[in-house]
């Protein structure tokens, strides 16, 4: 069940002290990660952290910051992306509706995954693949890794909790994390679900990153949710830790981005889903966002 932050309360925090509002939000998120690192280190013999989350949950930044914190505490850390084990797009079976398969567990190369991780945990020099999203193909033997004694692997991706993946990792000594916005926003008339907050994030992100307009993003969103409900939701209940990536100030950041898109004649205000919820917030300039913030997953640096 969602917990909600009032947009009116956010407006008051902006008016009282904008810098403190941003700082407190970032501190809350990072505080979760420091507590998480302590729990990982308190559990004996963790070799791998499985970091799962749905689309636009904030997995990439969470993995990077967790790596930094674990390294500060004296552990070596490698971050490996599940996406790098994707099969070439033209080699995948289409979905039952005839559309290309972009998200199901069937698009992973499990034999390659098993080979790479088994050699990695034996201490061999291993070159992992890298998936080229522009060319939609796997590049073999690109990323060099070597397991070091007492180090930890953070393996991140939407399917890392799937049993087929777990069987291919070369270890059962893992710590499972689920990353997603666990809270969202509301006003007197409307409550934004956490799923729709992720949709908003994706709409904002894809305008710059993929030159995809919100209408197209919203058209494919039901298919994204279908994959999540079939292949992610069943496994999220059996994790060791949840990370809430909702940032209280993020709607004000998106307000700034929408203003920019409108001024550049790229979108109209009505093109942005749920815009009425945050249209009256004071925009927060991107210059106020810390360099390591999760917000950079969804907005583009100037």
3D architecture notes:
The chain has 302 residues and is α/β, with parallel strands linked by helices. The protein has 10 helices and 9 strands. The strands form 3 sheets. Strands 3-6-2-7-9 form a 5-stranded parallel sheet, with helices on one face. A two-stranded parallel sheet has the order 1-8. A hairpin with a 4-residue loop joins strand 4 and strand 5. The chain is globular, with a radius of gyration of 20 Å. The model has no long low-confidence stretch (mean pLDDT 94).
Rounded to an integer in angstroms, the radius of gyration calculated over CA atoms is 20 Å
Which overall shape is indicated by the principal axes computed on the Cα atoms? globular
Summarize the main sheet: 5 strands, parallel
User: Which regions have little confidence, pLDDT < 50, spanning 5+ residues?
Assistant: none
Helix content: 40-55%
The helix-and-strand class reads alpha/beta
Tally of contiguous helical segments: 10
Key features?
single chain, globular, 5-stranded parallel beta sheet
Helix-strand blueprint:
Elements: E1 3-6, H1 7-16, H2 18-42, E2 48-52, H3 59-72, E3 77-81, H4 110-121, E4 126-132, E5 137-145, E6 152-156, H5 163-166, E7 174-180, E8 183-186, H6 194-209, H7 214-231, H8 233-236, E9 241-244, H9 250-263, H10 275-278
Parallel strand pairs: 1-8, 2-6, 2-7, 3-6, 7-9
Antiparallel strand pairs: 4-5
Helix pairs in contact: 2-3, 6-7
């Amino acid at each position: 069940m969602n917990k909600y932050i009032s947009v009116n309360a956010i407006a008051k925090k902006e008016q009282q002290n904008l810098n403190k509002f941003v700082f407190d939000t970032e501190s809350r998120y990072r505080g979760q990660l420091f507590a998480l690192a302590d729990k990982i280190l308190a559990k004996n013999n963790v070799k791998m952290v499985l970091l799962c989350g749905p689309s636009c949950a904030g997995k990439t930044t969470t993995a990077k910051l967790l790596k930094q914190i674990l390294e500060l505490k004296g552990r070596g850390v490698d971050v490996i992306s599940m996406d790098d084990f994707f099969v070439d797009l033209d080699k995948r079976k289409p979905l039952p509706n005839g559309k290309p398969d972009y998200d199901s567990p069937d698009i992973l190369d499990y034999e390659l995954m098993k080979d790479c991780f088994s050699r990695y945990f034996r201490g061999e020099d291993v070159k992992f693949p890298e998936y080229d999203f522009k060319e939609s193909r796997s590049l073999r033997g690109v990323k060099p890794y070597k397991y070091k004694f007492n180090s930890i692997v953070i393996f991140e991706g939407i399917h890392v909790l799937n049993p087929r993946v777990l069987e291919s990792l070369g270890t059962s000594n893992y710590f499972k994390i689920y990353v997603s916005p666990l809270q969202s926003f509301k006003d007197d008339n409307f409550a934004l679900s956490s799923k729709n907050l992720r949709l908003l994030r994706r709409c904002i992100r894809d305008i710059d990153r993929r030159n995809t307009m919100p209408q197209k993003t919203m058209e494919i969103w039901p298919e994204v949710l279908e994959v999540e409900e079939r292949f992610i939701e069943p496994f999220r209940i059996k994790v060791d830790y949840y990370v809430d990536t909702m940032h209280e100030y993020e709607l004000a950041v998106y307000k700034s981005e929408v203003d920019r898109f409108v001024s550049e004649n790229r979108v109209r205000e009505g093109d942005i889903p749920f815009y009425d919820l945050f249209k009256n917030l004071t925009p927060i300039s991107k210059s106020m966002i810390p360099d390591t913030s999760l917000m950079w997953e969804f907005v583009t640096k100037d």
